[in-house]
Here is the input.
Amino acid sequence: MDRAEGCWIKDRSGKKYLDFISGIGVANLGHAHPAVVRAVADQADRYLHVMVYGEFIQEPQVRLAERLAQVVPKPLSVTYFTNSGTEANEGALKTAKKYTRRKKLIAFKGGFHGDSQGSLSVTGREVYQKPFRPLLPNVLFLPFNRTKPLKAIDRRTAAVIVEPIQGEGGVKLPDDGFLAALRQRCDETGTLLIFDEVMTGMGRTGKLFASQHWNVVPDLLVLAKALGGGMPLGAFIGRPEIMETLSKDPPLSHVTTFGGHPVCCAAGLAALDFLIENKLPERAERLGQYLMDRLKKMSDIGGVKDVRGKGLLIGFELETAKLTERFVRNCREAGLILGWTLHSNTVVRLAPPLIMAEQEIDRGIEIMREALCKGLRK
Ligand code: PLP
Here is the structure.
């Protein structure tokens, strides 16, 4: 790679690629957005890393935490910053275990929460877990989207962790009522509900957070990817009495040297302000509909099994893994970058920047049509 700007990436030979995956859901504002670059430069000019344990108040952290408190669903209000999505999930799981004094965790088949040991322990794919056993004990996996098995959530369960829309698992949407049933069962048993919105947050699905489509509020909301505007930043957010858990018995129960780096928080605040001021979630909703309509029309070529998604998080499912591989390769050769979901080898993930122009979507569709025709001919 040589440069990346807006929805385009240029390699060192001068070849240009249109980015339909945003560095896997990171570049919601496009690459190197001027507001983010300015915030990074200004903060870098003031200070980089200074201190860890809260002895000094760092304005970029406070300003971003305050802004997040204004926009996350109530009563969530307190933010703990991390460097990445997996670390944010680790922090959320530890918080839930310590707060509830319970040991059992529940997650979902097909879910993905990151690759450090705790997050991997709740990631519902045997093939990725197997080489790393033993992982965390007391983890139970339930089928996504089925309400009856939710009975397994009981008074010994510390937390249930779920992606409101499964991303890596193949862009699987919850049925209406599933997240609400989950919320209800957690309330009945005093279990904390963790929504991993690392992929679905920050406007990607047409609302600032995907769970808002179903009006369900978690106990802990986990964010990363687009949160830092292209800089490494994650967070988990909860109500004060839950988040206090980590600051006592013992004090500093969970610390991180770089989590909430001032430059990343400054970038995150610039990105969040731009996202909200320019109504990018609404734009994602509109553009997503446009893109999905165009993709559905591609079924006439053949080889397409399903098109599904929410806003600009779309799963384009083809009939075979071989065809999917050829399709993604043909697209890349023709200058279009797509995501192939790790856990589902027939689903191509589309997550373009929310700032993409309709003409750029049309250009991507043109490349995809040709790539699919070529893939089917082989
Ligand atoms: N959770 C979800 C839903 C993800 O999609 C990802 C990454 O793809 C993660 C967690 C892990 O985030 P990170 O790669 O920043 O550790």
Q: What stands out?
A: The chain has a mean pLDDT of 97. Residues 34-277 form a domain with the Aspartate Aminotransferase; domain 2 fold (CATH 3.40.640.10). Residues 114 and 120 are 6 Å apart (CA to CA). The pocket of pyridoxal-5'-phosphate is lined by residues 24, 84-86, 89, 112-114, 163, 167-168, 196, 198-199, 224 (CB under 6 Å).
